[in-house]
């Protein structure tokens, strides 16, 4: 396991971080075994959030007795001071700890959200107060808009940023990661499998491992998944492999969707998942989770082209800040259901 100094924090963190978002979906004893196995084998970065169902409580129940062995990161999605303070206090109780190593302002994707969180009565003030009280060590920011995140860190108010970095979303490399490096901030990559769409798993994990990030959060729910993810990081990345991975990321990321979720669909197509999986679907096919997604989305995807208000000018495309050809890509996805390939 590779360990690097996490920005200016003074902590050394493992290159593979444990994403605890999906732990509420498995039996408690399985979660306990998985978390303890991860700690036993050198993973020392645990990532969760107040909004991940009872994930924080699972961490408190399963590994709080080993608190000195891991760097603990959680998040608040509240934008107001009172709401954030309440969530942070509850997180401390749930995780049975006196201190959160990294408290992140969660899922900030719009200017309005950022202004609300950073305002006089915003969530950031709650994080600062808890830091002054010794219950929070560092403050971070998470989001899906690397271009905006790059601007928002300009005032040195944060110690870390959590961002997408995967074979299908390499966009943080353009501006965000270079700026984080320049400021020596903590760099945490998330969703290397992009929610279960990207394969092969080994390449998916090795891509962010090949870049200048400190830790990559992978959502794991079993010992087998921990082993698989750790095995992908056993060998260091050579220059030739790095070039190959970057070329693959350029191809698989050609959809240009950042998963910012500005778009909405009146027939409930899950647009970011369709966009992000589009090229990997053509190149490698889909993992079981991806196939399950398309089975569930068959109705909305097939009804997209016939939705009257969108025929002349698709509503989703009017909302997209990147002006992407969303309807065209959803139409291509619809061909999955009659096994006809796009021309």
From TrEMBL:
<dbReference type="InterPro" id="IPR023210">
    <property type="entry name" value="NADP_OxRdtase_dom"/>
</dbReference>
<dbReference type="Pfam" id="PF00248">
    <property type="entry name" value="Aldo_ket_red"/>
</dbReference>
<dbReference type="InterPro" id="IPR053135">
    <property type="entry name" value="AKR2_Oxidoreductase"/>
</dbReference>
<feature type="domain" description="NADP-dependent oxidoreductase">
    <location>
        <begin position="16"/>
        <end position="199"/>
    </location>
</feature>
<dbReference type="InterPro" id="IPR036812">
    <property type="entry name" value="NAD(P)_OxRdtase_dom_sf"/>
</dbReference>
<protein>
    <submittedName>
        <fullName>Aldo/keto reductase</fullName>
    </submittedName>
</protein>
<dbReference type="InterPro" id="IPR020471">
    <property type="entry name" value="AKR"/>
</dbReference>
<dbReference type="GO" id="GO:0016491">
    <property type="term" value="F:oxidoreductase activity"/>
</dbReference>
């Amino acid at each position: 396991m590779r360990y690097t100094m996490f920005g200016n924090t003074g902590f050394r963190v493992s290159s593979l971080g444990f994403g605890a978002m999906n732990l509420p979906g498995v039996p408690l004893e399985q979660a306990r075994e998985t978390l303890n196995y991860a700690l036993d084998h050198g993973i020392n970065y645990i990532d969760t959030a107040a909004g991940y169902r009872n994930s924080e409580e699972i961490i408190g129940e399963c590994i709080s007795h080993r608190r000195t062995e891991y760097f603990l990161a959680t998040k608040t999605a509240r934008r107001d001071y009172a709401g954030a303070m309440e969530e942070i206090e509850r997180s401390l109780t749930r995780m049975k700890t006196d201190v959160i190593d990294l408290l992140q302002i969660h899922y900030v994707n719009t200017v309005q959200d950022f202004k609300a969180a950073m305002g006089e009565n915003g969530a950031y003030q709650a994080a600062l107060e808890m830091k002054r009280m010794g219950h929070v060590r560092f403050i971070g920011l998470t989001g899906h808009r690397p271009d905006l995140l790059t601007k928002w860190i300009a005032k040195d108010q944060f110690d870390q940023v959590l961002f997408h970095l995967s074979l299908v979303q390499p966009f943080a490399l353009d501006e965000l990661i270079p700026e984080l490096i320049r400021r020596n901030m903590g760099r945490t990559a998330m969703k290397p499998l992009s929610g279960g769409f990207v394969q092969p798993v080994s390449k998916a994990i090795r891509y962010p491992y090949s870049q200048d990030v400190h830790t990559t959060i992978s959502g794991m729910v079993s010992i087998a998944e921990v082993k698989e993810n750790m095995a992908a990081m056993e060998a260091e990345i050579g220059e030739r492999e790095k070039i190959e991975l970057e070329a693959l990321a350029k191809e698989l990321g050609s959809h240009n969707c950042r998963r910012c979720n500005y778009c909405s669909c009146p027939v409930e197509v899950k647009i970011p998942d369709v966009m992000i999986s589009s090229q990997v679907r053509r190149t490698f096919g889909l993992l079981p989770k991806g196939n399950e997604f398309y089975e569930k989305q068959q109705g909305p995807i097939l009804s997209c082209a016939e939705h009257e208000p969108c025929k002349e000018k698709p509503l989703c495309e009017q909302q997209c800040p990147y002006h992407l050809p969303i309807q065209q890509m959803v139409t291509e996805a619809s061909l999955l259901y009659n096994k006809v390939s796009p021309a």
